[in-house]
């Protein structure tokens, strides 16, 4: 899983505001890709909340004087206590840098920690869950749902490593469900002779126990402050479903366009879900594209064949791409050809022996 693109700087509106009487979810993103989500009260310092969760983020003086606990708050709103300029300059503060020993959250936040999870003496969370639903109706895709013993916190768009039952092997899959629920869903490509594909297609049954670790990844939905363009290839649709589902109860003011490309008609899935989301989220629209010219689909070829430079909003747009490497590179070339550089470009690549929609 790979992501790239400059994050928006400085404090901003979070993905979902909370009641001040409830603790906020603070996502700590470590340099090695591990994400730990802790709870922090509105009147609690982030450093104290991390310590309470037994996570030793960098910390020294605790007085806002040394700068050891300097991190970057990628999204969310907060207040800062007293500190000296040697620890945090005004310019750094304007860019979203914070001191965890002085920061109190006013919303959910995402904080990048300049250290590995091992250095902070924490590790990725492991969850056990029960397989409650499995849908094999698509010839090329399997969707399934797991029920955990507690709500699973993650950032919409992130992934986990799911253990293939009966083996020591894991496979990385993005959530296709909204965060903070005990029921989590996944959408996976049925790869011929694939280890997880074979299990899901031939062996899995409801009641099976499955284990996963995570969340991981820096491909997730940032605060929506401008138009958003989402480009999905095949089962790269999964993280976008998670993002869109997370917006249902807090729709953004900005428009969102999803272009969903697949190889064949059989690969088109979750169209009913997308239609429901379109009705629920003002400003959200989507279209589908099938590579196969003989498919009879209204739009054939690659998703970039059906995009226009106007949909880049003269660069005032955040672009998210999830699909096989050729798709990501195809989108880059299309943007270069359009002569427009988006405000941010976030992508996640995955490999599949049958991937080709781009």
From TrEMBL:
The keyword Cell division does not apply. Residues 24-117 form the 2Fe-2S ferredoxin-type domain. InterPro entries: 2Fe-2S_ferredoxin-like_sf (IPR036010), 2Fe-2S_ferredoxin-type (IPR001041), 2Fe2S_fd_BS (IPR006058), BenC-like_FAD_NAD-bd (IPR047683), Beta-grasp_dom_sf (IPR012675), Cbr1-like_FAD-bd_dom (IPR008333), FAD-bd_FR_type (IPR017927), Flavoprot_Pyr_Nucl_cyt_Rdtase (IPR001709). Its cofactor is [2Fe-2S] cluster; FAD. Keywords: 2Fe-2S, Iron, Iron-sulfur, Metal-binding. The keyword Translocase does not apply. It holds the Pfam family NAD_binding_1. Residues 124-222 form the FAD-binding FR-type domain. NCBIfam families: BenC. This is NADH oxidase.
């Amino acid at each position: 899983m790979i992501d790239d693109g400059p994050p928006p700087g400085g404090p901003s509106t979070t993905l979902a505001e909370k009641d001040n009487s409830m603790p906020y979810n603070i996502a700590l993103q470590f340099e090695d890709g591990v994400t730990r989500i802790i709870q922090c009260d509105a009147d609690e310092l982030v450093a104290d909340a991390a310590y309470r969760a037994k996570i030793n983020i960098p910390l020294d003086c605790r007085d806002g004087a040394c700068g050891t606990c300097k991190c970057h708050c990628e999204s969310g709103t907060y207040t800062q206590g007293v500190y000296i300029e040697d620890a945090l300059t005004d310019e750094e503060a304007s860019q979203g840098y914070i001191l965890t020993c002085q920061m109190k959250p006013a919303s959910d936040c995402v904080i990048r920690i300049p250290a590995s999870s091992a250095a902070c003496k924490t590790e990725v969370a492991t969850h056990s869950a029960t397989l409650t639903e499995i849908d094999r109706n698509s010839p090329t895709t399997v969707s399934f749902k797991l029920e955990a013993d507690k709500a699973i916190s993650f950032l919409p768009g992130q992934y986990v490593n799911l253990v293939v039952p009966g083996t020591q092997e894991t496979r990385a899959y993005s959530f296709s469900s909204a965060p903070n629920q005990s029921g989590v869903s996944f959408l996976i490509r049925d790869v011929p002779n694939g280890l997880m594909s074979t299990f899901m297609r031939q062996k899995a049954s409801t009641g099976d126990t499955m284990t996963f670790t995570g969340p991981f990844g820096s491909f997730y939905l940032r605060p929506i402050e401008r138009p958003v363009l989402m480009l999905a290839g095949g089962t790269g649709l999964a993280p976008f479903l998670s993002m869109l589902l997370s917006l249902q109860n807090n729709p953004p003011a900005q428009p969102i366009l999803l272009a969903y490309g697949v190889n064949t008609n059989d690969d088109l899935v979750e169209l009913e879900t997308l239609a429901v989301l379109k009705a629920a989220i003002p400003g959200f629209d989507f279209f589908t594209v099938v590579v196969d010219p003989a498919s009879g689909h209204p739009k054939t070829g690659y998703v970039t064949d059906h995009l226009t430079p106007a949909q880049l909003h003269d660069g005032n747009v955040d672009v998210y791409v999830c699909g096989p490497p050729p798709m990501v590179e195809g989108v880059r070339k299309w943007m270069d050809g359009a002569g427009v550089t988006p405000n941010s470009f976030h992508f996640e690549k995955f490999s599949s022996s049958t991937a080709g929609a781009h």
